[in-house]
Each structure stands twice: as structure tokens, then as C-alpha cells.
Write a structure and sequence with these properties.
The structure is a homotetramer. By secondary structure, chain A is of the alpha+beta class. The first copy, chain A, has 2 domains: about 160 residues, DD-peptidase/beta-lactamase superfamily (Beta-lactamase, 3-Layer(aba) Sandwich), CATH 3.40.710; about 130 residues, Probable Glutaminase Ybgj, Chain: A, domain 2 (Orthogonal Bundle). In chain A, about 45% of the residues lie in helices and about 10% in strands. Chain A is built from 12 helices and 7 strands. In chain A, a hairpin with a 3-residue loop joins strand 6 and strand 7. Chain A is globular. Chain A starts with 5 loop residues before the first helix and ends in a 5-residue tail after the last helix. The interface between A and B is medium-sized, with 32 and 32 residues.
Chain lengths: ~300, ~300, ~300, ~300
């Protein structure tokens, strides 16, 4: 069963929207505090290119942690799995996404997976390029190619706000530099990472990228290969085992689709062989996931029988 | 694409068998040391009841940690998800399967998931019954019903061997008793748990149970409901996120099917909507998974395109 | 400067007593809940046998953790430092006294010191004897010899209350049994340990034992050697570095004398070359130390210039 | 009993020197690798100003962690105990000196004591002054006043070598900045801290500073107050509970004097009411203490009965 009209999607959004009042917008990055907690929007992109929408689906928001999946895909393509997984592990963790403990207690010191902050920093540190400009260009062109557009913007205000307050990420960065997991200048890495997190996108575009992953790496409209199928598969795996912060296990049990959330309130879903989804709802639960967004994805998964399990 | 003959399965077994020499049989339970490290056998059970075999597929071995999934299904049916998940969490962990650290550092103290030892003890502690006999009867009848047979044996030698040396599980048990996660007598719990782990089965039977989970809880031959579909789905989810000890993430990435391993060398797989699989190969890798068994499952998954991602 | 009259001690007690209202009696062992939170008494025993008292100095209470020092002295004498320190470390810890984390994360697994519960269990496990009776007799005779009396009682009610609820100590015990730090039956060990903790004593007697340690192991009246001087010195060292639970460092800084507290509200002090002290005040602060007792010891240390630093 | 001649001290040095072959010089700071592992020298400064020497007692070395005690004394004087201990704790720890784990797992996040790196950084962060120059001047003048000389040098080569490789200290610094334990620019803090660690001194001078602490804060020759007596006492306390890295407990038991070591191979001792000592022996044991130096201090403590316990 699949979605047929924007109206049915709008009904689901209205069913999920009341949950916004139990959440609150992220405040650890000053610029994110300004989001409207009542927002909730969604887009589905089927693998034949059909699209459905509800809510303000062209409203821009920043990728934040959703960029971790895209950056992972990028380095898997550019650097290959061997290099990538020599610097970052493949295992889920019960620790918080910003935890440093396991870096000290594990031997060898290596971030457990690319979806926690330490692992994401190690991933971004593998971007190829002579300097910041080349590294950034390589990555942003990859994002543009996924979206099939020529220019993707990043929110300078959000990036700088995060850059100026990312002391914990600097702590993780220097710790890994000590153990030679990452190399080079930490400030430059942080700048690259905060820009990556500040890329602006809307629900519809998020659904497009989800659809690429769902479609074994091929564009849902043109069927052009944007990501090799094995890279797409690896990314979907991490989305299941550690895509939703410390609620990944519960989400897998209740919803059962590859998905990645960010503290801006976005959720990108990739339902294998079916569709991509983009959700935006900035009111977060205590684990950092969009509270109404989670509810909406569960309603859709139940209705359209998306669970891969 | 699906398996057509026992011969093609036998070829895959021969391709995987050389890996046995890089593994070794479990020695932490004295009775397991006597296994033959060269053994490797497999069975596939398709959802129309068709079966294929290779190796000594009727050789008995003990379930060990594979019993964790079956016990979870049992309490989910008998006690309901609300009670179950008030005592045990749903999140994967980066800690070893027998770790106690998170019980102390998490607040509230609660085992992270039902696939680690602490969580499995909490699950078995929920078995209903007035006494050991009733608790055991309830569970063993559930196992018998899954297999469609009237008697399932358990290996007393293995059970006692484990019971006599399970100091770490006692430590976990008493720790959780302190925090009122588990109740009652720890020795009785340990006896129940070690018997559960010592249930004897062969590859063919393991494939049957896997097929029940793969078939949304229905018997692959009679289509009779053995497990409610939502319970089957929850179990498959945990098999993906934490079924293969600390190699679960890597297994999900490389093989991509719900599976659970045990230190006896067994692996039970449940490929949704396709088939159940049973593998036995007692030579283990350092994480506690059958070393040749893992390789064999990966060969099958690649060939028959089983990955759910 | 030293104490000259009971009256001046009584004044100090009255100065410290108001603090009792900020503390509360231990409730983790049911039988301890019945203590009177307003109690506060003290005894000083100088090394020439002179004694001073204030408050109800003959009121009995149980040793609890104070017994850890006496048990340590006992095994150091009976088993020798080499055996003792092969089973238990010499380093302070920042973890709680009942923590299990370091047993798992340290390699080799070994309790950090004899003043935390894990270490104290390892110490009691070294008591020599064929059976419980012999082990207990050996230890209780040592306590009697320290006190110079022929019979020392233990509170059966407290011991059983603790024995029946000591799940965390059992957890520690089994964990160490797994790693072969301790041997034998855990229930028997727990029984021995809870009896040791339930030995009844009063302030005056506590001061006597403190005086033995302060006097390089010699009885303050007869000058008979009760404890070899090097054993007495080792014990005083542990009292400074880890005698006051997680407030040991602060106590060393503010008071500066070897001391050991227990959750019954007792504090035993040993001021080298000067005196022993016994304090009883069952209202505890959040770290488990007698709240008015701590204050009283600090008043005495300031007045009589006891700090060893 | 006290030392009477340089000859008897020379004999003790010769007795301890063979241990140098079981240690090795620090290599984590490149510039320290060039030390001569065979060096061993000592100086004792009695509280009447009498001095004894053995070995090359005028050879300069850098303070390294010994500076932690001096910096602590400085901020206790300048900022007062209340401010100091609101930013850094008083408790010993069983974790390594450079560990970050407790900063994450403790609530509130606060370094356990001023002798571990996290705590020492928090101490240096409290140096008063408008800019780096003023902060440094304030501290170096305090060191000069302790030594009674007008100029103290710092080894630029060692400081820069450490500054360029101190990634772990930066990690600790940013972590604490996140939790507002420290403020301001981390690079500036690191520069100040590495200069502090690179202050050059010799054995004789080290003994002088030790003697100030031993003498309740007064200069051993002039009896002028250099450090208030309560500050001197607090410092000696930390030297006992956490002055010798993860061997502090063992050192307290075997030697029993307030002492602080550094990875350059220095050990400063403060025997209350008796003497100060300075030792230099750059070959370290695995815990980071001078291996022959430790042995030498133990020989002296046994011979001259220095233990405070």
C-alpha cells in the first residue's frame, strides 16, 4: 500500500502535530533556538519519481547530524571502505552521541561508528583536498549531485554559532589527534564539519536523497547512479543501527526503516525499494529526535507497511 | 534467486570450511571444549516448507545465546511488551555481552537490551510459573511448539557445567536484584537460564525456528501462527541491532539479515519473507561468533541477495 | 596541646551536635534505621592510657566499615603483605565504595584498595581457617586482643539484616570469583563479612583500637605489641588515603589524621604518636560519614593540632 | 636521626642507582627524550638551612608535574580555597593522570583533584592577570620568591615541544570549557601551562621549595613566611594522596612522606617539621615516576624515619 494523495499525508501530519507541545527546540547551538516549535512538514518521494507533500515542505532547515550519512557515503566513494573503516568502527553504542568515554577505554582508540560525533569528525577528516576550499567543494558537489541541482547553500549564521561553541567536538577532535585517528588542524576540521552540518535543505530535497539511498543509489527520476549500491547499503545499515541517537533500537523496533535525524528537527528516511522520506519538525524529544516527526514516521510506517523486519 | 539443490549449498560449505582453522571452540564452559572445531553444517528452510541441507545437519548442539531470542519472544507473548520493556531496554551497546559497567553507570539501572547477558537474565526472570518446574515447562512447550515436535531435550552436562561456573552471570543477577530489576532466587534463575541455554537442537530445527520469524510468526509448512507478527518483528529487529555480539554492526553491513549466534557455534537467521537458516560451526572468532559460519552466511547472503538494506 | 578534662570535650560535642539535623541515619541496612540520629559521643585515649569522654560513650554500635581496617591488620599479620597485596591494590579511587566498574575495566581485575567493599571482601576471603567457625574465631580473638577483653559480641540482628540484603556485595563477590581474586563459597564469605561488620563496640573501645594504631601497634596502657609497627603504619596510610569514603581527600585536607568511618556512624582515628579517638554519631552526610562526628573531629584536630601534614 | 654528611647520602645514591637500568626516559614530549637515563642526584635541606648533596645537584631539569603543587599553592594564596575548590575537587582517583572519563561520568563535571592534568589545567586557568604576560609574571615571581632568587628560567625548547604535542591536554581543556570549569582561550592556557611545566630547576632548589612546605610555609633559612601555613598543609595533603601518579597509595604505604614527581624525573619531598628533599633521576618506571629516585627516597625515609604515619 502506498500514499495516493497529499490530503492523506496532511491528515497524518495533523494526527502527529499535537506531539510538538511535548518537545522543545535545540538550544545548545544558539542559532537553532529561533526555530518555530510548531512546524511539521513531510515529503515522500517514490522510486518512480512520484512525490507527495504536507506542511511547509519548502521551508529550509539545516542538515545537522543528517549530514553524517551523506558524508559517510562521500568518503566511502572517494576513499573506499578499507580506509574509512580503519579510522571508524561499525558497531552501535549505548553511549550518548557526543560521548568521549569509549575513546579512552577502547583499545585501540577508535570511534565506534560514523553516526556519533567522534566518528563523524573522523569521517569529515577524510575529505580529500589540498585545503579547506577543495575539501568543501568536493563534498558540496556531491550533495548537489544527489539533489540534481547546481547550488546548495549553507547557513553561515548557524555554522558560526556552532563553530564558536563546539568545545566538546574540539575535545573529541584533539583526543583523536593524540591517537592519530585524525590528522591536521582541528580548527579547520571544525570549520568544515560545522559548515557540513549547516547545509540548508527542505523536506522535499531530503526525501530525494532518501530516495537515492532507497533506490540502491540511483536517482529516483533519472535512474542515474549517484551512489554505488554497496555504499548505499552500508549507509542504510548504519541508519538502522545508529541513526536515531540513543533511540535507534526503539525506533528500529517500532518503525523499522533506515532513518537519520538531526537536532534541527529533520529526519531522512530510506525505505528500501519503496521510497525516500523527508520530515521537518524542530521540537525535539529528550534524546534529540523530532518528537512529532518520530510520531509521524511511525504513523506512515504502520499505514504503508514500511518495516524491513 | 534462491537455493535449488543441496549440492550448491555443499559447495558453499566447502568454500567456507577452511576458515575453521582460524577459530577455536569455546572454553569458558568446560563441556563446550569437547566440540569438533572442523564441523560446519547448514540448513535453509523456505517459507513454503522447502528445505536444503549441507554437512551433518542432524548433529545436535546447544542453543546458548540463540535462546535469548526465543526467550524474548516467549515473554513478549506471555507478559506483553510493556512489562518486558520496563525491565530491559531496546538499545544496542558497544560494551561486551557480559559487561556489568552500564548497569552501574546508567540511571536508572536497566540492561540495555535483551541480547546481552544482563538483559537475557532479566527476560528469563519474567518467565511465569509458581516454581522452577512450571517456569521451565512453559518455556520448553513454547520451544516445542515452534519446532512442531513433542519433546525437546536439554544437555544436562552442559547445563551443569555452565551452572557451576557462571559466576559472572550471578554477579549480574545480584546487581540487578539490588536495583529490583529482577526478583526471586538467583540460584533458581541461574538454573533456569543455564537449562534454557543448554536446549539441544540441530541445524535443520534452527532453520525451522528462523523460518517462523521470517514468515511473520507463522509455521513455514502449516502457516499456523506460532508467534504474533509484531513479536516476530521485534525479535528480528534485535537480531539485526545486537544479534551477533560486538560484531553486530559489521554483520549488518556485510550480510544484512536478522541473525543470532551462540557460543556453541550456532547461528540462526531469519530472512524476512524468504527463509530461515540454521548454521553450526563450533570454531569461534574472537568475538564469539562461528568463524566459518559467519563466512558461510555471508556467501549465502551475497548469492541469494538476502540483505534487507 | 592536649585535652585536659571531660568538660572541654563536652563543650566540643555540644558545638558539633547541631549538625546532626543535616544528616540522616543509614537506611540501606534495615536494622540500622533504628539508630537515634541525635546521638553524638566521643572518647580520646592518649598513649599513656589517659582517657577523656563526652556523651554516651558506652553505648554500643556496630563497626561496619571500620572493621575493614582491623581485618586488613589481621590478614597483614596472618598472611603477610605479599599475599595480601597480590589480591588487593594500594591505590585510592574516585569511585564510590561499592562500585564494580573498575573490576571490569582494570586489567588485571583487582580491587583498588582494601577500604572499598570489593577490597574488603577480598581481605575477609583471606581469613585463615578450615571452616567458618575457625575463620571467625581467629578474627574475633584478634579484635579481643586489641581491646584487651575476653569477649566481643556481634549484633545478630544487624548481621542478618545486612546478610539478607547484601546483593551488591554478592555481585562484587561473584565478579571477583570469576577472576579468581577470591575463592570458595560466596554465601559463607558474605556471612563472615556481615558478622565482621556487625561487631559491637563503644566509643571508648574504638579509641583504644585507634590508640594501638597511633602507638605503632602497642597497647597504650601495657605497651604490649598488639600489631607489628609496619602493619600499623600500613593501616594508618590507608586510613588517610581512603578511610572516609569519597570524602577522604577533603578530610585529609581539613583534618589531616588517619581515620576510618562506618555507616553506623562510628569514626575511629589514630593520631600518630599522640592518641586514638572514637566517635559515634549515626546521622550521616550524603557520603556516608557521621555528619556531626566529622565536625567534631575537625574541631578536635584544630584545637589539639593533630594534622600530620 | 638525620643526615650528617654528603658521603652518607652519596652511599645511598650508589645503592639506588642500579635501578636506573629498569626504567626509561619519558618520550611523549620529544625534548625530554634527550635526558641521560643514568643520572641520579639528591639534595636535602633541613629546616635550619643545613644542606646535603649527592650527585650532580646543580644540573637543571624541568619541573613538569611538580609545578602542579606550586601552582596550587599560588592560586590558594591569590584566589582563596573557596574559589579554587569550586573548580577542582579534593579526592584522589584511581584513573590515570591524563584521563578524561570522570569528567564525563561525574556530575557535576569537575576534575577530581589538582594533581591530575585536568585539575592542573583548571588551576592554571585561575592565574590572575589581564593577559598572558601578567599571568606568567605573577606565577614566576611566586616561584622566585620561594627560591629566594631573582630570576628563574624556563626551557623554551621543552615548552614548545610539549605545546606542539599536547593534544590530550587540549582535549581536557575544551571538555572543561564546555562545562564552564575553565574559561578563556585554550591555546593561551596551554601556552601558560607548558611554560609552567618547563620551569628549570635543580635538586638543591627543589629541596628548598620542599623545605618551605615542610616548614609550614616559612623559608628554612630566614624563617620568612613564603606560603601561609594552611596553604602549605593543603599542598602536603595532596602530595600524599595523589602526588605520585597511580603509585601514590603504594608510595604512602612504603615511604610515607608528602612528595610530588614529574616526568622529567624530578621528585620534590616535604617531610613535615624535618626537611625538604629534591631528587632527579630521569629514568622512569611505567607509572611515570623516577625509578631510582623512588628507591632512593625509600632508602632515605627508612634510614631517617621520615614516614608521617
Amino acid at each position: 500500500m502506498s500514499c495516493k494523495t497529499n490530503e492523506e499525508l496532511t491528515k497524518l501530519v495533523e494526527q502527529a502535530r499535537p506531539f510538538v507541545k511535548y518537545g522543545k527546540v535545540a538550544d545548545y547551538i544558539p542559532a537553532l533556538k529561533e526555530s518555530n516549535p510548531d512546524d511539521l512538514s513531510v515529503s515522500i518521494c517514490y522510486l518512480d519519481g512520484t512525490r507527495f507533500f504536507a506542511g511547509d515542505y519548502v521551508k529550509k532547515f539545516t542538515l545537522q547530524s543528517i549530514s553524517k550519512v551523506i558524508a559517510l557515503a562521500y568518503v566511502l566513494i572517494e576513499n573506499g571502505p578499507n580506509e574509512v573503516f580503519s579510522n571508524v568502527g561499525m558497531e552501535p553504542t549505548g553511549d550518548p552521541f557526543n560521548s568521549i568515554v569509549k575513546l579512552e577505554t577502547s583499545n585501540p582508540s577508535k570511534p565506534l561508528n560514523p553516526m556519533i560525533n567522534a566518528g563523524a569528525l573522523a569521517v569529515t577528516n577524510m575529505f580529500k583536498g589540498e585545503d579547506h576550499y577543495e575539501k568543501w567543494e568536493g563534498f558540496i558537489q556531491f550533495v548537489q549531485s544527489l539533489l540534481g541541482i547546481e547550488e546548495v547553500s549553507w547557513n553561515e549564521n548557524v555554522a558560526l554559532s556552532e563553530f564558536n561553541t563546539a568545545f566538546l567536538n574540539r575535545s573529541l577532535g584533539f583526543f583523536m589527534k593524540q591517537y592519530e585517528i585524525i590528522h591536521g588542524d582541528i580548527e579547520e576540521l571544525l570549520f568544515l564539519y560545522t559548515k557540513q552540518c549547516a547545509i540548508e535543505i527542505n523536506c522535499s530535497q531530503l526525501a530525494t536523497i532518501g530516495a537515492v539511498f532507497a533506490n540502491e543509489g540511483k536517482d529516483p527520476v533519472t535512474q542515474e547512479v549517484k551512489v554505488p549500491s554497496d555504499v548505499a547499503r552500508i549507509c542504510k545499515t548504519f541508519m538502522v543501527t545508529c541513526g536515531m541517537y540513543n533511540a535507534s533500537g526503539e525506533f528500529a523496533t517500532k518503525v523499522g526503516i533506515p532513518a537519520k535525524s538531526g537536532v534541527s528537527g529533520g529526519i531522512m528516511g530510506a525505505v528500501p525499494h519503496k521510497c525516500g522520506i523527508g520530515v521537518f519538525g524542530p521540537a525535539l524529544d529528550e534524546k534529540g529526535n523530532s518528537i512529532a516527526g518520530l510520531n509521524l514516521v511511525q504513523l506512515m510506517s504502520d499505514r504503508y507497511q514500511w518495516s524491513i523486519f
